[in-house]
């Protein structure tokens, strides 16, 4: 696992205290993955990884049956990584003080968010559209 995260034979032979912060983060990531917890929290997991390490982590999280049956919470600014590994998105709005769930990967979330912004802009321009928009939202909610 450490080799997949970029460790050379020389790095593997070093004591933990001799490793830089970035290499220690990789060791911690490997330990967390090896433990296979029911809930895995990853905060910016791609920050200290090489491209090969990021691709390995993507494959591991997206295709391994171990992680498909567990909860993995990822906080990341790496949109390509989010797109590859996420099946659901949670958006935390500090302004609206709301947590919103979106089914799908990051690109699908972005498309729906843009559609909603366009709808809100239309409603601001034409308040009478609010009623039909609310009916449409209610119909979607009930249909689920």
Instruction: Outline the biggest β-sheet.
Output: 2 strands, parallel
Strand content: 15-25%
CATH topology: Rossmann fold
Shape descriptor: elongated
| Share of residues in helices | 40-55%
Strand order of the largest sheet: 1-2
Query: In total, how many domains does the architecture comprise?
Result: 1
- Overall structural class, as computed from helix and strand content, comes to alpha+beta
Pfam families: ABC_tran
Coiled coil: 99-126
GO molecular function, one term: ATP hydrolysis activity
Domain ABC transporter: 8-47
What is the element layout, followed by pairings?
Blueprint: H1 9-13, H2 21-35, E1 39-43, H3 51-63, H4 65-68, E2 71-75, H5 79-85, E3 88-93, E4 98-103, H6 106-125, H7 129-143
Parallel strand pairs: 1-2
Antiparallel strand pairs: 3-4
GO molecular function, one term: ATP binding
Subcellular location: Plastid, Chloroplast
Main location: plastid
Concise overview:
The chain has 144 residues and is α+β, with helices and mostly antiparallel strands. It has one domain (38-143): Rossmann fold, CATH 3.40.50.
């Amino acid at each position: 696992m450490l080799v997949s995260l970029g460790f050379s034979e020389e790095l593997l032979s070093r004591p933990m205290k001799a490793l830089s912060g970035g290499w220690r983060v990789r060791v911690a990531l490997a330990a967390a993955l090896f433990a296979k917890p029911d809930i895995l929290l990853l905060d910016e997991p791609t920050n200290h990884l090489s491209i090969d390490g990021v691709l390995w982590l993507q494959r591991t999280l997206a295709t391994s049956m171990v992680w498909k049956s567990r909860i993995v919470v990822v906080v990341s600014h790496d949109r390509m990584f989010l797109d590859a590994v996420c099946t659901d998105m949670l958006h935390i709005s500090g302004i609206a003080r709301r947590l919103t769930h979106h089914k799908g990967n990051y690109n699908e979330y972005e498309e729906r968010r843009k559609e909603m912004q366009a709808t809100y802009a239309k409603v601001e321009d034409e308040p009478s559209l609010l009623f039909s928009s609310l009916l449409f939202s209610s119909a979607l909610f009930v249909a689920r």
